[in-house]
Design goal:
single chain; 418 residues; Alpha-D-Glucose-1,6-Bisphosphate, Chain A, domain 3; TATA-Binding Protein; 6-stranded mixed sheet; 18 strands
Length: 418
């Protein structure tokens, strides 16, 4: 299977280089103009060039957007027929990949992905008189202007912004400053070498609470490698779990219909009507096209349909800073219902096979065990050789029991006893 839960993603090698050109040919044979961007990884230029070369060989025009957040590419795609983002999102630097978008910012759906995969075996180039061309394009300005029309931050609100040396460096610092914040940036050089692990987890950000105290910051916002994700710290310097941030956004926006994933807390159902999807922002986006006012998943992917159907880290950062200027975030969080959640992962090369053995129709969708007082989701990662466990319960004991039940099922499967 070529596409995972979030596009194509794998370790950079000759096969990925060749695949980028082939996918470019497949996309170029179906779209006359395609916007192409990349995150800050050192392999971004060669892979984006390979993709664009494939496009041009079919006679299509490639709009070169350079380094840009994924949501900027998705937003600016509205002026073209499709877009491609060269990124591995929050994966480590040796990885890279491709994400494909529709003009409304939504990811290519399963049917479109299958069409691209099928086309790889039947692609051809144009003759020398009918080659396409590459043109420069600015995807940042339209996205920035659209966000600034909707976001206003309290004047000189002190904010910490950690871009993680990713694509967010080229947009979010200026965006927050223009919106009214007084911004202290961290890891804001798009060097392609991440000063911290790219995934915005609390264990990767131990330095931020002290920096917030030193600068009297009212909040801190954090991006991953391509800035489609945003996580945050409240005014006390406390990291906000994604489940609570999902509910916080829903409350601030006054949202009545929320789309989220099977691994999100059951607490969100106490503040809005909820529809759930398999884990992966593409699934949330696909459902939001049909139903819902706001969507996201606990990993930090927040989708605002009035902007686009792509997770938008810069917009989320601006919205959170606006919220921090109006609310005491810590007090608001204290009022949100919450239940104990445990998240763990198991490194396992045969993760997909184990999920099939457990009865999953799709390993990355996984299986969900449910009881009256808790649940556990077991799924294969769509981007890494891992099995991910998420368990929640009315009490800590309930959550632990559900996790142990899930882990035991995997142990039995590994022994051939599932």
């Amino acid at each position: 299977m070529l596409f995972g839960s979030s596009g194509i993603r794998r370790l950079y090698d000759q096969d990925l280089f060749t695949l980028a050109m082939q996918v470019g040919m497949a996309v170029g044979s179906r779209a006359d103009k395609v916007l192409v961007g990349m995150d800050s990884r050192t392999t971004g230029p060669v892979l984006s060039s390979s993709f664009m070369a494939g496009m041009c060989s079919t006679g299509a025009t490639a709009l070169e957007g350079g380094i840009a957040p994924t949501p900027s590419i998705a937003y600016s795609c509205r002026s073209f027929q499709a877009a491609c983002m060269v990124t591995a999102s929050h994966n480590p630097e040796p990885y890279n990949g491709l994400k494909l978008f529709n003009p409304d910012g939504s990811s290519f759906q399963a049917v479109q992905q299958e069409e691209i995969e099928d086309a790889l075996s039947d692609i051809s180039i144009k003759d020398w008189l009918h080659q396409g061309e590459m043109k420069k394009c600015d995807p940042l300005t339209p996205h920035r202007e659209a966000i600034l029309k909707k976001i206003t931050v309290k004047d000189d609100l002190p904010v910490i912004l950690d871009c993680g040396n990713g694509a967010g460096c080229v947009l979010t610092p200026h965006l927050l400053s223009d919106a009214g914040a007084s911004v202290t940036t961290v890891n804001a050089n798009p060097s392609g070498i991440f000063s911290r692990p790219s995934e915005p987890l609390p264990e990767h950000l131990p330095y931020l609470p002290a920096l917030m105290k030193k600068t009297n910051a009212r909040c801190a916002v954090v991006h991953d490698g391509d800035a489609d994700r945003m996580m945050a710290f409240d005014n006390t310097g406390t990291y906000i779990p994604g489940d609570l941030l999902l509910i916080l956004f829903a409350k601030y926006l006054g949202t009545k219909r929320v789309v989220t994933t099977y691994d999100a807390s059951m607490a969100v159902e106490e503040v809005a009507e909820v529809r759930r999807t398999p884990v992966g922002d593409a699934f949330v986006s696909e459902q939001l096209v049909k139903w819902g006012d706001f969507g996201g998943e606990p990993s930090g992917a927040w989708i605002f349909p009035h902007i686009s159907y792509c997770p938008d880290g810069p917009f989320a950062a601006g919205l959170f800073c606006e919220m921090a200027g109006e609310w005491d975030i810590a007090e608001e969080l204290a009022s949100i219902p919450r239940y104990p959640i445990i998240r763990r992962s198991l490194e396992l090369p045969q993760s997909r096979e184990v999920l099939y053995a457990l009865g999953a129709a799709n390993p990355t969708d996984g299986i969900r065990l449910e009881e009256e007082d808790g649940w556990c989701l077991i799924r294969a990662s769509g981007t890494e050789p891992k099995i991910r466990f998420t368990a929640e319960g009315r009490t800590s004991e309930d959550a632990k029991r559900m996790l142990e039940r899930g882990e035991e099922m995997v142990r039995l499967a590994l022994k051939g006893e599932a």
